[in-house]
Design a protein that fits this description.
Keywords: Signal. This is Lipocalin-like domain-containing protein. A hairpin with a 2-residue loop joins β4 and β5. The chain is α+β, with helices and mostly antiparallel strands. The protein is globular, with a radius of gyration of 16 Å. The chain is built from three helices and nine strands, in the order αββαβββββββα. It has a single domain, classed as Lipocalin. An eight-stranded antiparallel beta barrel has the order 1-3-4-5-6-7-8-9.
C-alpha cells in the first residue's frame, strides 16, 4: 500500500507539472543544448513531503508505470506520464539550465551532476538519462501472456 501511494504521488506531481508550467520556449541553440538532448527517466522525487526513492521508481517501471522526458534535436519535447504523452518544446538557457514548455506553460530544470532536477511548489522531480521503458499496456500484455497456460 505504501509503494502504491508513493507511485501515485509521483504521478500526481508529474501531472501537476504539466498543468502548472507557465511561459514559452524556443528551439535550443549552441553547445548548451547537447547537455540536455536525449531521454530522461524520472528516478526519484518528493511530492507533498513524501519521498519516492530510486527503488520505488524502479518497482513502478517494472509494473509498467513510468514518467519520462524526451528532449529531441531541434527543440521538440515529449513528456510521458503513465502512458499519456504531451508534446512540447525545450530550450537550453545556459549550460546547466533548460526551459521546458508544455501546453503553453513552462518551467526550468537544472543539471545537478548527472541528474536533471525540477523543483516547483516544494516538490522535487529528479530525472536521469536512460532508455525509455515500454508503455504500460505492452508490459501488462506481456505479463498476461506469460501467466496464461499454453494449450
Amino acid at each position: 500500500m505504501k509503494l502504491r501511494t508513493k507511485i501515485i504521488g509521483v504521478a500526481a506531481c508529474a501531472f501537476a507539472l504539466c498543468v502548472a508550467l507557465a511561459g514559452c520556449a524556443s528551439a535550443p541553440a549552441g553547445n548548451d543544448a547537447a547537455n540536455f538532448q536525449g531521454d530522461w527517466i524520472l528516478s526519484s522525487g518528493t511530492v507533498d513531503g513524501q519521498e519516492a526513492t530510486e527503488e520505488t521508481m524502479a518497482q513502478a517501471q517494472e509494473m509498467g508505470l513510468s514518467v519520462y522526458l524526451q528532449l529531441n534535436e531541434g527543440g521538440s519535447a515529449v513528456l510521458s506520464v503513465l502512458g499519456t504523452n504531451m508534446d512540447g518544446s525545450w530550450t537550453a538557457k545556459d549550460a546547466t539550465t533548460v526551459e521546458l514548455t508544455f501546453d503553453g506553460s513552462s518551467a526550468e530544470a537544472t543539471l545537478e551532476g548527472e541528474e536533471l532536477v525540477m523543483q516547483q511548489d516544494g516538490d522535487v522531480m529528479r530525472f536521469k538519462r536512460g532508455e525509455i521503458p515500454p508503455v504500460a499496456s505492452e508490459v501488462q500484455r506481456d505479463e498476461n501472456q506469460a501467466a496464461e497456460p499454453e494449450a
